[in-house]
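Troubleshooting: if your tokenizer reports a length mismatch, compare against these two reference records.
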Amino acid sequence: MGNRGGALHNDQREVVRSFKTKCWLTCRLEFNGRHRVVMSPHHYTELFFLDEATAFAAGHRPCFECRRGRFNAFKDAWRSRSERTSSASLCAAEIDAELHQSRIDERGRKRTYQLPMISLPNGCFAQITSEAYLVWNDALLLWTPEGYRRRICRPNQLTVTVLTPRPIVECFQRGYAPEIHESARAQ
């Protein structure tokens, strides 16, 4: 589950904005016995993702509260990509500010970019034709809301549109391994 810093919906439960703040999180579905009614008036809008790799492609990062271990691992990878020393402080707001610039363009649209397929680490999403694929080992796995459905050989000679924000790709290159849905293993 995730959120984008606040209510994205109105009192009629209609989505009226794409985000509210720069803080886009992925959270656990269950944490400390909390119970929420989805799209409650005046509360943050719950977003649901197939897996962590999908949430990363959307530009989210792990929550500091309910996913502290994953956040700390992500922060370590983030720090190493920017060549900070481990003793240098790095707060979530700094990550959010840089990440926001890499996920949304000046018009509020998703920012994408081109890279050679061979350069993409596991966990990235690439768009080929109009479909989104998870890069995983020597294959691409077709993403659907229900799970990964088709496996094709990874065409390393292609240059593709990358959907995962660049700083997150760099974290994957530095060793952060995103969690993926079980359907990826069946392909």
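Reference record two:
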Amino acid sequence: MKTTLMTIDENASIYDAAAVMKKKNVSGLIVTNAKAEPYAVITDADIVNRAVAPKKMNAKVKDVASKPLIGIDANRDISEAAKLMGNRDVKRLVVFKQHKVTGIITVKDIIRISPSLYDLVAETAVAQAAH
């Protein structure tokens, strides 16, 4: 799990989000509201699929971010995280501890720790797609 969280304000431009992602070498940012509370994630895929491809280059982060945050409690097992990623067809989960965002775990993190769990993510995603 990554505990250094990269955030961006919901009113930032998608260009600003892309620039931060490139500079920090990350594929997603936590989106915060006016009270600096996290409520969404914007990913490189969100930018491509919801802004660039449909030619909405003037969109703000809040217009293309994935909402709501999909997360898991910090005390849960990594296999539960893998299942949840597969069920929700996401590549990252926000990690909560006492209802506060404390980190992010990605499919890459899971593969690095336990490559066999990648099969669980993939199998769960395929099963969900079939329903």
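Descriptive notes for reference record two:
- Residues 86 and 124 are 5 Å apart (CA to CA).
- The radius of gyration is 15 Å.
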